[in-house]
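re: ur question from earlier - yeah i can do the single chain one, its not a big deal. heres the input i used so u can compare w yours
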Amino acid sequence: MVIGSILNIRFYDRKSSIQLNYCFLFNFVLTWSFSIFNFQLSINRMALNKNALIRYRTIDKCLQNRYRKWTLNDLIHACSEALYEYEDKEVNVSKRTVQLDIQLMRSDKLGYNAPIVVYEKKYYKYDQPNYTITDIPLTNLDMNVLSEVVEMLKQFKDFSLFSELSGIIQRLEDRVYIEKTKQPAVIHLDKNEQLKGLHHLDTLYQAIIKRIVLRITYQSFKANAPHTYLFHPFILKEFNNRWFLVGKKEGQNGILNWALDRIIKIEADLTIDYNNHNFNADEYYKDTYGVTVFPNDKVIEIELIADFINAPYILTKPFHHSQRLIEKYEDGSAKIGLSLHHNFELERLLLGFGPGVTVLKPGSLRRRINYKLRKALEKYESLKKSD
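and the output i got, formated as tokens:
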């Protein structure tokens, strides 16, 4: 939902009473705004208690998984487990409750109109493969309230403390525009809906915030078969349109990052105490481009030349926070410095510029890029012979 996606906002105490007052004021306005939204929504839709919402969401997630057949008992068990996870106590969900939930989800009382069907006389599924209750359109009343919220948030965008909100407000405003006018989006974000593993995001997010150890079945591209590990999840990290789970295996010290598209199965293990080892993501990734970190390696000082075509792009969108302009030349090219670990992602970044970027130092990185470019040239030369 739009509302859920915009509330992941953090404020930092910069030791300024004025800024803290702004923060208090903004939190008050934001809370008040969405209180209005939720109040209006409750008038327009049937009032729901928390347990009912958890059951609807659980049934929805089950029926989205078309690789499994879902009986009524399976759905009851899934709802009971979800409520236990959220409430931390046994909740007995009755057969009648889940039947009524399905009936209500099928109806238009909540705006779901879920296409839930029964097949082979005992299994439940969505008749529309891509259906989910989280994609139901907003009503006119919802849109009017959201419009008011957007207008109110826009009043705060010029405060330095809230500068990071500008992108969020623009995306929300664009969403409201799409829903109201039925016109194509004005803001188009880069996304890959075919990326595997995205359905794991919510499960992993909940495990991290609730500090739960996971039993994860994972198969890397280099492995011949999947293996199952006990894993302490620390954070979810996105890089280059791919999501990674960062954490540690039980009993091991090294921090790992696992791509979500290679995770096969996730189960909670409540018998083991969770430990995030006071992991600090900002500190861990401060000298790294991408996700592959070599904490025991020294940071290398990099110098490169960007030609006159690529220099403006690199200067206006730095590779990394350590990037600095060493010298700008009359022809428009520039010498640029970076302080980073040498990893696979850095190599791919530099190779992507082809002849537009030349590594001056260190020699080890220059030779590595030289080798990769020569191998690429050899492959293209071999193709010329077959033309």
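The radius of gyration is 26 Å. not sure if urs matches, ping me
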